[in-house]
Design a protein that fits this description.
This protein folds into 3 domains: about 220 residues, LuxQ periplasmic domain, N-terminal subdomain (Beta-Lactamase), CATH 3.30.450.220; about 150 residues, Reverse transcriptase/Diguanylate cyclase domain (Alpha-Beta Plaits), CATH 3.30.70; about 230 residues, EAL domain (TIM Barrel, Alpha-Beta Barrel). By secondary structure, the protein is an alpha/beta fold. Helix 9 packs antiparallel against helix 10, helix 13 packs across helix 14 and helix 17 runs parallel beside helix 19. It has 24 helices and 26 strands. The strands form 5 sheets. Strands 17, 18, 19, 20, 21, 22, 23, 24, 25 and 26 form a 10-stranded mixed beta sheet that branches.
Length: about 725
């Protein structure tokens, strides 16, 4: 994909959806904010509307109550009837005082004929005829009150005050006003008043001016004003007595939501801008990451199917190509499995860096020896595979031979030379039914046989190899059954004698009498047991049987051969000690034989296990001493009690070889290190005599006795006759 295509794809699939999402988010947040603040403002306005209406209603009641405090009074009845009128008293009690104390704007007193006798306007006494200013609005209220009083109604209905009255809201000279009319009546009833003879008091409270000032200062209504028209969201309609709208009390409404919105909007806009910038930066980073990902995808694909050390195909790619090659069925497909010989030695002696260099160089040599169409793969460790298509047997053999010879050349590794070999197992697909797993299995069988035969050569799979593998499988299964049923397995014992040919110990040897196959030699079933893990239960069975024999003949020791597979188990030492204790045998009568190969492995687990067994009383014997791995360093590292000279040296005593000198040297080494020395494989009188002369104190071999069953030990251990040259 080109750079322009990448940009378009990024804009189409990432940038545009993200921008749309941010816009939608902004609209959503803005809508929610506006809705919530608008609702808050509406509620605030409704509360202010109700408050203004309540104040007006309370003001009408208050005006009437203020009048009643002065008109329901005997003195007021007398003073209004008095002739001439005491104007000053009227000012102080029914006129000017109402403005000064109650903030009433106008007050009027009417005689029984409803003629004005007193007037107060805005805190000053006025001419009575100024009543004409309000007469039109007041007359309906006066008539209503006179009618009620004429019918005998003097007290109001309910608990609202003590005297009846009439009130309404109306426009006076274009100004809304509360008009309240109250009769002046005796409080005590001591003054006789016939219906219709009452004087009336009229009070006016305008709903603009000081009323609005009081509404603002006491109730927090901001800048109230009376207008004929509704000019603000905050507006309360003032209704007259006929329910007609006289005008509106307008004010600047309290809008907390708008205030919040005004303060929050810039913050939200800034937040959205910041988020937009961050998202933009993130999109840029994503775009760069996408480009890097596209650039590295091929590399990742390569790494997923190739070995990182050699750059060769790995197991997954090899198997995939093999699967496709087999699917075509029109070609002869072959698989070669290769293992480097002595690779571990290179790692141990030169280090892992040299081992890695060896793997790389090995891969390069294989690439140089094969065709471009062939697939070379590293399966792991020092295991390689080659897939050859259109293969012929002769070509395969020729290729394998070239590989073996070329790998024999030294490798230059970090300034050192290393010599290794290669083992090759090959299999060729000649049948349509063979699948990938079967072809690899056959090549693996051929490789296994190469390793068994000494390594560093090649072999092509043949059916007889498979038969051998199947035989090993049968042996494993039948050996498992034998261990479970305790049938067919037994121990035979070969005596070990001292210089006087008296038996001092027995070597326990495992024998397996198969019900069908007959006697199966140990070299056939012991390797199978080691590979399958059956060597552990087999060794435990042999130890129990040997312990029983030591209890029957407590003056003899019994030696038992151990496999390295047993010794690698961290629990082996404790298990062995527990078995001996459970049977009641003496560990000092048991000798455990190990080969020099075990010592060469220099395994910490093996070393710790042998040390634990030796401290528990067992004797450790080094078997087959002198065959390839003998080293004084091993004897120092692994504390042993006895060494056994390998029978190969004993068999050549007396001929032209230097076996006699070697045997003498081993005996001298044993004496120097305080070790017992035994010779095995003694078959002739001459060999026995030589060993006796050079000071060998323990011997073992057919000259004295072969291995016998346990039930034959009684006869074998009987004292020998005077003419006996050997035990058997």
């Amino acid at each position: 994909m080109s750079s322009a295509d990448n940009r378009q794809a990024h804009w189409r699939t990432v940038a545009m959806p993200t921008a749309a999402l941010l816009l939608l988010l902004g609209l959503l947040v803005g809508t929610i904010l506006h809705f919530s603040t608008s609702r808050s403002d509406w509620l605030a306005r409704e509360r202010q509307n109700r408050l203004v209406g309540l104040v007006i209603t309370q003001s009408m009641t208050a005006v009437a109550n203020d009048q009643e405090a002065s008109t329901f009074w005997d003195d007021a009845v007398l003073r209004t009837r008095q002739q001439p009128l005491d104007m000053e008293w009227l000012d102080n009690n029914l006129g000017v005082w109402f403005h000064t104390y109650y903030q009433h704007d106008e007050a009027y007193i009417l005689d029984p004929a409803d003629r004005p006798i007193y007037a107060m306007q805005f805190g000053s006494r006025a001419q009575p005829n100024s009543f004409r200013k309000i007469e039109t609005q007041a007359r309906p209220l006066i008539k209503t009150l006179r009618d009620k009083m004429g019918n005998g109604y003097l007290a109001p209905d309910g608990a609202s005050g003590q005297t009846i009255g009439a009130s309404s809201i109306d426009a006076i000279a274009g100004r809304p006003a509360i008009i309240s009319v109250k009769p002046i009546v005796s409080e005590t009833g001591a003054i006789a008043q016939s219906p219709g003879s009452e004087y009336l008091h009229i009070s006016i409270r305008y709903l603009d001016g000081t009323f609005l000032d009081r509404l603002s200062s006491l109730y927090g209504i901001d800048r109230p004003r009376f207008k004929k028209l509704r000019e603000s969201k905050g507006a309360f309609p003032v209704l007259g007595s006929d329910r007609a709208v006289l005008g509106y009390i307008n004010w600047l409404p309290f809008e907390p939501g708008r205030q919040v919105e005004d303060k929050m909007a810039p913050v939200l806009i800034l937040a959205l801008l910041v988020v937009g910038i961050l998202v933009g930066l993130l999109l840029l980073r994503l775009r760069r990451g996408r480009l890097e990902l596209e650039a590295s995808r091929a590399q990742a694909q390569h790494l997923a199917f190739h070995d990182s050390l050699t750059g060769l195909p790995n197991r997954a790619l090899f198997e995939d190509r093999l699967e496709h090659a087999l699917a075509r069925r029109d070609r002869r497909v072959a698989v070669m499995l290769l293992d480097l010989d002595r690779f571990k030695n290179v790692n141990d002696t030169l280090g892992h860096l040299a081992g890695d260099a060896l793997i790389r160089d090995f891969g390069l040599r294989l690439s140089a020896l094969t065709r471009e169409a062939d697939t070379i793969a590293r399966l792991g460790g020092d295991e390689f595979a080659i897939l050859v298509e259109q293969a012929e047997i002769d070509d395969l053999s020729s290729l394998a031979d070239r590989i073996v010879k070329d790998i024999a050349r030294p490798f230059e590794l970090l300034g050192s030379q290393a010599y290794v070999g290669v083992s090759i197992g090959m299999a060729i697909c000649t049948e349509a039914a063979i699948d990938r797993l079967e072809l690899i299995r056959r090549a693996d069988i051929a490789l296994y046989r190469v390793k068994d035969d000494g390594r560093n050569h090649f072999r092509l799979f043949s059916p007889d190899l498979d038969a051998g593998i199947q035989l090993r499988g049968c042996i494993e299964e039948e050996l498992r059954d034998a261990l479970n049923t305790d049938e067919g397995l037994r121990l035979e014992y070969q005596p070990q004698v001292d210089r006087r040919c008296e038996i001092v110990g027995l070597e326990a040897l495992i024998r397996w009498h198969h019900p069908v196959r007959g006697l199966i030699p140990p070299e056939q079933f012991i390797p199978v047991a080691e590979e399958s893990g059956l060597i552990v239960p087999l060794g435990e069975w042999a130890l129990r049987e040997a312990c029983i024999v030591t209890r029957r003949w407590p003056k003899l020791f019994v030696s038992i051969n151990l496999s390295s597979a047993q010794l690698r188990s961290a629990e082996f030492a404790e298990t062995t000690i527990a078995i001996v204790r459970s049977i009641g045998a003496n560990p000092r009568n048991i000798q455990l034989e190990v080969t020099e190969r075990v010592l060469v492995e220099d395994d910490d687990v093996i070393k710790a296990g042998l040390s634990r067994l030796r401290s528990a009383g067992f004797k450790i014997v080094l078997d087959d001493f002198g065959t390839g791995y003998s080293s004084l360093g091993y004897l120092r590292s692994f504390a042993v009690d006895k060494i056994k000279i390998d029978q190969s040296f004993i068999q050549h005593l007396g001929d032209a070889s230097n076996s006699g000198a070697i045997v003498g040297a081993i005996l001298a080494l044993g004496r120097a290190m305080g070790l017992s020395v035994a010779a095995e494989g003694v078959e002739t009188e001459a060999q026995r005599t030589f060993l006796d002369v050079v000071g060998c104190r323990e011997m073992q071999g057919c000259f004295f006795s072969g291995a016998v069953a346990e039930d034959e030990l009684d006869a074998l251990l009987a004292p020998p006759g005077p003419s006996s040259a050997a035990i058997a």
